[in-house]
Structures are given as C-alpha cells and as structure tokens.
Amino acid sequence: MRSCFSMRTTFSLLAILAAFSGCTYPAMLSPTANQTSVVTTTTATITRVATFTPTFTVTSTATPLPTPTPTPTPTRTPTPTPSSTPTLTPSPTATPLPSPTPTLRPVSADDWQHLLLQLINRERTEYDLPPLAYNNQLALAAQRHAEDCAHRGYGSHIGSDGANLRQRLERVGYTKPWATESWAWARTPQHAVAMWLNEAPPDDPHRRMLLSRTLTEVGVGIASTKTGYYFIADFGR
Question: How far apart are CA 115 and CA 233, in angstroms?
Fold first, then answer.
C-alpha cells in the first residue's frame, strides 16, 4: 500500500513535469516482485495549463497635503521724520519815499508857446472862426510880463513898475489900436486854455477874448516857478 502510494506520488510529479515540458511519458516499469499491485501501461495525457502571471497595478491615491497658508510679512511702517517748520522772517516794510517836488522843465518859444497857440486855434475852429496869427512883438511883451510875474510871485495885468498893457506894448514897438491880454497860473498849456474857456457867460471875459472875431493875432509868454507856470497871452489887431 505504501509502495503503491509512493509510485503514484512519483507518477504525479512526472506528470506535472511533463505538463510544463509538453511531453508524454510512458507508464512506469513493472513493479518488482515485492510489489503487490500490477501496474499496466498507461498513457497519461497532460493538458498544459497556461501560465498566468498576474500583473498588479498599484494605484497610489495620494492625499494632497494642504497648501500652507503664507504668513503675511508685516509691513514696516516708517516712522515719520519730524520736519522742521521754517520760520518765516517778515519782509521789512518799505518806507515810502516822499514824493519829490516836481522839477519843471524850462520852456522855449518853440515849445509850449506854440502849443498854446495851437490849442486856441483848435477851439476857434470849432466855432468857425479864423485862426490867430503869431506875432513876435506881442510875444516879446508877453514874455517880459510873464517873467515879471514869476519874479514877484503873483500875476496881474499891471507890471511891477506900474506899467499897463498899452505901455508894455509900446516898449516893444507894437502900436496897433486893438490890444487885450489874458494871464493864468497853471501847470500846462492845456490847463491854462481850459481855465480861460471854462468861464460861464456873462462873466467870461477870457473866453470871449479867445473866441473874438475882432482879434487877429497873438503872442505868448511863459515863465516857470517852483510849482507851476505863468502863461501870458497878448492879443492884437
């Protein structure tokens, strides 16, 4: 019984080996005399078992680590540097200089004297009156009288020696029958003419003199003072 089991075991092992090698093995040789069982010749057909090599796919399910939350870096607040407030020094108040006394420029015969004549004739044109002619004898008498008024410090139709207009005209050789005179203390020729023309009738002797149809010529004299001028206008015909 034991021998039979051993043979069967040996046969089984051979069969397994044959299965892997694909061969057919004959039956074992006849047992010896000590064996009780007779083994007949057996042809064992072993079907080859397909070799299966399992493939294992390892899926790694990785649990993502939490993204670390960045720790904000504290912003350093700069300590303000105290700024020094400039001390404003007040500008010194300028002391206004006293207004200087105006220095009056000298006047020549070719300057304000003829300008005054132009101003008179311009006004006469407004009233359709002929212009006055300039007379040098009248101008000489007027200039002497203007200087006399400036020297004594006041104006008048009488000279400092007591001479009237007719006497002063005769001294320069003017002997025509018609003659009259206007004088003014003013700062400019325009000012003087305006004073003569701004008289209101019937008290307007100087205005009527400038706009007279009888008078045909004039001479002008001008003398300066510290603060103004004496304007003398001698008219004739």
Answer: 12
Query: Between residues 4 and 112, which one has the greater pLDDT?
Result: 112
Which among 119, 116, 104 is positioned nearest to 142, based on CA atoms?
116
Tens digit of each residue's pLDDT (9 = 90 or more) over 40-82 = 343 444 344 444 444 444 444 445 555 555 555 555 555 554 4
Tokens 């004549």: give the residue. 117
Q: Which DSSP helix (H) or strand (E) runs through 134?
A: strand 133-134
Length of the chain: 237
**Closest among 220, 209, 221, 218 to 148, alpha carbons compared:** 221
What spatial distance separates the first Cα and last Cα of the chain, rounded to whole Å? 197
pLDDT at 168: 98
> Is the alpha carbon torsion for 108, 114, 117, 119 positive or negative?
negative
Burial of 120 from C-beta contacts in 10 A (0-12 / 13-18 / 19+)? buried
CA distance 227 to 97: 20
Nearest to 138 by CA among 156, 160, 155, 113: 113
Tokens at 79, concatenated: 């300590």
**Residue-level pLDDT at 23:** 44
Which one-letter DSSP state was computed for residue 202? T
pTM score above 0.70: no
What integer pLDDT is reported at residue 162 of this predicted model? 96
Judge contact between 66 and 38, C-beta under 8 A. Answer: no
**Alpha-carbon torsion (23, 29, 34, 35), positive or negative:** positive
Report the alpha-carbon distance of residue 37 to residue 31 in Å, rounded. Answer: 8
